[in-house]
Amino acid sequence: GLFAAALTATSPFMIWYSQEARPYALFAFLSALAFLFFVEALQGKGVRWLWAWAIASILACSAHYFGFLFTGIEAAWLLWWLRGSRQDVALSIGVIAAASVPLVLLGLAQQQKTSWIELVYPGDRLVQVPQHLIVGLTSPWEFLPPLAVGVVLATVLYVIVSSKPGTLQIAVIPGGVALAAGAIAVIALIVGSDYLITRNLIGIWVPFVIALSALLAAPAANHVGTALVALLCLTGLALAIWNAATPAAGRPDWDPLAAALGPPEVPRAIEYPSPFVVPLLPDLPNAHEPVPGEIFTVQEIDVVEFRQVRDYGIGPCWWAGVCGGTQDVGFAEGLFFPIPRGFELVEEGQTSLFTYRRYRAAHPVELPPAGDFGNKVILQSPP
Question: 349 forms bridges with which residues in the sheet?
Fold first, then answer.
């Protein structure tokens, strides 16, 4: 328990997603809660734990569609293990299924939103998973992620081979859930349902880290397990601090760019060849995204692009990080509309992560009606 808590507190992967407004940290928490109630139910502590598991599972599925994967694994395990209470188990599963109907319909409607995943070579994404879980999404040295995974794997195999029968029983349930989830995600990838990226598996963290900790705390690990946990914690803490202190290793910091662009003197459009210009909006007063069909008139166009910086990403970068100054995987580069006639380059500048070019016309120019800009354009009026 102490090992698992320490590894979680210092995990660069968990720290990264704890900083986002997206649902990944919430999903990890609700999956952990469901796993706790699942283990209590497996021990035959009463039907109330089954209902607690059912409620937590419904909430986990509501936070992320991969909740269905973990819930399905735990449901099958409960049906197999609690043979004397199958009616109660089936009833709780039925409640989960009923509550999931609108989520399934929503998921079917949103299927195309994940089509970008397939653009990243699946082998690369598969190799990324253990590296991301152990050392996070970025690293200052390319050799560190595979080295860390190799050391952990070698230690785990040594403990498994060296342990006496029965001494590793505590790792069976969390390890089984984690391995089953990973295996099903890989099988789904092979048969054509490709959703395999590390953050979708963030719900696997608690069973994964409990199983790993149980192995490293086993008698066969001796002091090697404790030393490895300490080393992983120190490495994780150092990587988390390095990530926060290194602009090119984290998420884009838009504040310096907003300050460099300054308040508009005339109506302007800000273009960016990626859908991630939207984070600028909170820093820009009187700004909005154009809606399809909107007709707008501007006298200034600012073109924003990433600077080329060192790529610290572990494998192909798809997590809205700086990504070496290239655009995020799956989004075509290039401006949504070319600079119209009458606009002249009047200024160029840069921040630590961005460059910008400012074009201005002598008179306001009406641009064609807005189409689907894919979050690449912001319109801003003078104060």
Answer: 356
Q: Residues 122-142: pLDDT tens digits? A: 999 999 999 999 999 999 999
Q: Which residues pair with 343 in a beta bridge?
A: 361
Q: Is the pTM of this model over 0.85?
A: yes
- For the stretch 210-228, what's the b/e string if a residue is b when 16 or more beta carbons lie within 10 angstroms of its beta carbon? bbbbbbbbbebbeeebeeb
Query: Do the strands 343-350 and 297-306 form a parallel or antiparallel pair, or are they unpaired?
Result: unpaired
Burial zone of 31 (CB within 10 Å; 0-12 exposed, 13-18 middle, 19+ buried): buried
Q: CA-based angle 79:84:87, to the nearest 5?
A: 60
Query: Tokens for 203?
Result: 């719900």
Report the C-alpha gap between 323 and 307 in whole angstroms: 10
d(C-alpha 313, C-alpha 382), whole Å: 38
At 53-90, the pLDDT tens digits run 999 999 999 999 999 999 999 999 999 999 889 899 99
